[in-house]
Amino acid sequence: MKTFAQIVAGTLCMLACGALGLGAAAYAQSAPEGQVKHAKLIKVSARRFVFDPRNIVLKKGETVDLELTTADVLMGFNVPDMHARSDIPPGQVMHLTLTPDKVGTFTFLCDVFCGSGHENMDGTITVIE
Ligand SMILES: [Cu+2]
């Protein structure tokens, strides 16, 4: 039988886990190449200190597979509002699956320091209805 303390702890955990889920604007999943299928592919290439493309338009509820590569050094691709990120190691093709569930404009950025200019390495994801 559960003690009162165990029940309280379990309830608090459920509340905390629920709170973590709120505020995310997408379901996100990072996976090695070859594991993502049936999603629209969008190629995003990084190099010091830009992403190409810098503006990505997605449809709410439509799953996309972002194919991430870097032309030079290790980069990070991070969409804080969607709780989504992936490293982009040189010579590798990374995949980040997103299913946006909120309309709006969300910033993505490089979160691995890659030199002076790194601070300005960002772009936007615009989610439309
Ligand atoms: Cu960087």
Comma- or semicolon-separated keywords:
single chain, 129 residues, mainly beta, Immunoglobulin-like, 5-stranded mixed beta sheet, 3-stranded mixed beta sheet, 10 strands, 14% helix, 47% strand, binds copper (II) ion
Question: What value does the Rg take, in angstroms?
Answer: 17 Å
Helix content: 10-25%
In CATH, the topology is named Immunoglobulin-like
The first-level CATH class is given as Mainly Beta
Alpha carbon gap, first and last residue: 49 Å
Q: What are the distinct ligands in this entry? A: copper (II) ion
Percentage of β-strand residues: over 45%
Tell me about the biggest sheet? 5 strands, mixed
Strand order of the largest sheet: 1-8-5-2-3
- Overall pLDDT, averaged? 85
For the record, the CATH architecture stands as Sandwich
Assigned CATH superfamily: Cupredoxins -  blue copper proteins
Number of continuous helical runs: 1
Low-confidence parts, pLDDT < 50 over ≥5 residues? 11-22
Listing every helix as H and every strand as E from the N terminus to the C terminus, the arrangement reads HEEEEEEEEEE
How many domains?
1
Number of strands: 10
- Using the alpha-carbon principal axes, give the shape: globular
- Going by helix content, strand content and strand pairing, the class is mainly beta
